[in-house]
Prior knowledge:
This protein is α+β, with helices and mostly antiparallel strands.
Amino acid sequence: MSREEEKHSEGYRKLLEQARHYIDQAEEKAAPIVEKAVAQAQERLSEAGEYTREELDKLGDYLKRDLHDAADYVERTGHEYGDWLRLDILKLETNLAESFLRVADKTRLELANWAMQSELHTWHSGEITGPGTLECIDCGELLHFIEPGHVPPCPKCHGSKFRRHVD
């Protein structure tokens, strides 16, 4: 993994942690909680000077896409987040798993009010994703992520578009 890829993966993780912090402090009636929390987390990381505004905008979009997709899946199917991840939650770093699941749960609560563009449900090579399994749209190859990371081209067909894989 390149230095830039490591930086972006760590930025995704930090953004998630900061968003969780703001959600934990927010009042239940504040709307939209997740959108505001991610914006506040971006601002805090921007002030620290580690990431550019452009990097934080992209990382924020990636995080919101993943949270929205997880919440949508749970709402639609009634299954647990672990089914969406298609990973053993115990294999994930405890803090990362706890943060992601707590923020995703808040996302589910405001799903009806959260208007996201449909293209945010497609993952592309070079983007950052959180934990879970992505499926190549071209050939069906599965990519498993147990922590935030860059989405590579498909190792089987070199495709660049993926969707969340769930049973």
